[in-house]
Amino acid sequence: MFQLLQWLPLLLLLPPPGSPEPPGLAPLSAGAPPQAPDLLYADGLRAYAAGAWAPAVALLREALRSRAALGRARLDCGARCAAEPGAALPASPGPDSGPGAARGAWEPLLLRAALRRAECLTQCGTRRLGPGGAARLRVGSALQDAFRRREPYNYLQRAYYQLRKLDLAAAAAHTFFVANPMHLQMREDMAKYRRMSGVRPQSFRDLETPPYWAAYDTGLELLGHQEAALALPWLEEALQESLAQVESCRAGCEGPEEQQKAEEAAEGTGSPGGLYEAIAGHWIGVLRCRQRCVGDTATRPGRSFPVPDFLPSQLRRLHEAHAQVGNLSQAVENVLSVLLFYPEDEAARKALDQYQAQLGEPRPGLGPREDIQRFVLRSLGEKRQLYYAMEHLGASFKDPDPWTPAAFIPEALREKLREDQEKRPWDHEPPQPKPLTHWKDVLLLEGVTLTQDARQLNGSERAVLDGLLTPAECGVLLQLAKDAAESGTRSGYQGRRSPHTPHERFEGLTVLKAAQLARAGVVGSQGAQLLLEVSERVRSLTQAYFSPDRPLHLSFTHLVCRSAIEGEQSQRMDLSHPVHADNCVLDPDTGECWREPPAYTYRDYSGLLYLNDDFQGGHLFFTEPNALTVTAQVRPRCGRLVAFSSGVENPHGVWAVTRGRRCSLALWHTWAPEHGEQEWTEAKELLQEPEKEEGEGMPSRDPAPEPPSHRLQRVQDKAGKPPRVREEL
Ligand SMILES: *[C@@H]1O[C@H](CO)[C@@H](O)[C@H](O)[C@H]1NC(C)=O
Ligand SMILES: *[C@@H]1O[C@H](CO)[C@@H](O)[C@H](O)[C@H]1NC(C)=O
Predict the structure, then answer these.
(1) What pLDDT, on the 0 to 100 scale, is given for residue 188?
(2) Disordered: where is this region (predicted)?
(3) Among 135, 367, 386, 648, which residue's Cβ finds the most Cβ atoms within 10 Å?
């Protein structure tokens, strides 16, 4: 409740509950100066985590609106202040202005203009965005990335769903999905939305993608149907709007975020030196950022690579289409614009000759398009400075354009750049997304990295993956094991000596036991919930990695800690766990493995997820089937998963734990549904019981996306990072 008080001031700005929802994400509080996007977003996530859906929606939308307002204000203020007399920068001193003019007059003029421009920008920002202006609304780079990935829409769709605003939920889901086509959960959710009766096809609209993409696609499609006349207005709009998008991207380059990034990048390379070195350093950063804008504009949401040669290729289509409909003057203007990028382009030159011949007498007024001329000249000016800085100041610059004239590139750099150009990834078709079951997508999605594959582990069907758990999550599971063990000591469910060695104590906890203890209030329910969630996380990764075409089921999950018994460790020769294979009885003498009872013959894949590393010994190792020759070893650490097939190809054991306590989650997966873990389902039901009222009133035949209740929430990191979206979904 106290958290609600925190939102109160903001809620007062928002329309009263029950007021009609505006279509789309229109401003909620027109006129009022926006709050900082960071704060709004953080508050929105807190509201979301607490299940306060309406405030969450309001706050997240405000965050989006505030960020958009910031971008618009930058663009407008930048344009206005550049045009203001007195704030215009002086033209650079010409060769005939003499040395006195350069030193005596130019420098103070430049700096005075810079001061005047800064003043103008500050005032304009304050006028547009309220006290503090743009600086108050600065967006940190982490949040900028989150916005770029459209994460707010993922939260929004869930919150709208909870509020039964299905149309908006579908729009938000679609908006997120467009930029995250690999997001498995969203793909499933989208399918569910499509099946819901309350959602119409028009609901799936994209609330973020700039409209030039739609114009571009429509134009291309019409061209494909030989409809040049119909295509032309779309093609023209696409070009103009993409140029406008480049402008608004460039305006962002002068913001404090870019500055911050440049500082981050400069860390380690020492301080920028004196006044002019600092100015130069900052300026280079701005130029680099501006040069990247064409690539950003040419990159579709959800794609990694830009459409190659975006602007010139649009101009080519335009001149051809204009020629087809017989508008030769337009055709000439556009083909001349192509030649600004590629003066030697054979096809363009030939087309130009042809158009001119068709036109008859030369038309003096015909030149390249003005917008393109401005663009090319400006870009070349920036490249000239960047290459200069590269050659003389050691700056780095990766030219994003293939059309830069060779003469611009310093001799010394040309060879290297040519090589880089040849490696340019988008010279080839950008890689098409692989089928969704591809394990890499799943790893990426889960924030997991593949540390060692089978080859690196000297075997087959083995892998080490890292990043499955945050340190906080390891802490929660360790606490769960500890609490359960202590309760066992009181109740007779005791930590006993290990079945494998007399020198270690062994504590095991199944998911069902954990759920029962949680229900009884003996252990925190958070730990028990997490145990379930994590086992599913391991299962889905193991399936994606090893068995994409055939579902795997958890067959047994066991949280196991082994503790060294003090005073019994010297000269110890045995193992913590002798060498064995998981689904067959290994005969080390013959190297054979009998897949028959008492082995758990239905186990197909095994997983060991480690929770800690503060103990001595305890490495996992793989051997040859002789159980003697060690082929690979893995050191446990929090969040590391060793996954492997359960057969004779993976005999394994654990070295003695000689000090401390080693905890891990052992999981076995099976292809046989009848050997799926009953206890897992029981445990889940047990933990869900008090929350049965969830989903009440939902149309029961709509398989709805599961509401993101706190029980699925990933434990926050110590740093208080907001919960990542994935686990809420
Ligand atoms: C060519 O196109 C321009 C702009 O679309 C238009 O203003 C002009 O009238 C057209 N000329 C002809 C001959 O169609
Ligand atoms: C694989 O074998 C090589 C050579 O025996 C060894 O150096 C390497 O450590 C092994 N890999 C692992 C992960 O143990």
Answers:
(1) 75
(2) 686-729
(3) 386
